[in-house]
Predict the 3D structure of the following.
Amino acid sequence: MAVTNRGIAVLWGITVDGMSVNGAAVTNASSIRYASQGLSRSTGSMEHVDNNGEVIGFTTYNQTSQLSLECYPSQSTLAAARTLRGALPVPGDRVTLADSADASNPIAGEYICDSAEYRTSNSDKVTISLTLRRWAGITDYTPRT
């Protein structure tokens, strides 16, 4: 069903529509369904105080972005959906997310896979949870071997 805004326009849904792992394309919109994503940004910080203990300065360092991504494999057949399990990232892999609908999406870009969880259930579909991280100071990446 298409989304229609009335009254005010709001951002709706997930527009990330592609993933590659270590440079190799893994998915397109029809094979991995993105269910949720959350981006948090954090930094280390230090306050600088004068001889009376009053804060006179503040320094931030080690800017980090962490993305939590939930998705599930889907294809036209069960056998085809099963083939996607082996293509998903493992910790240490470089993961690149694309958003062809919104070039300004802060979630799109390169990350390093920090953790990956593959969950099965007797009452729900298989879900995959990824924790991806990137640092402001890291501009180059050598994949794990």
User: Anything to note?
Assistant: The longest helix spans residues 78-82. The chain has one domain: 18-135.
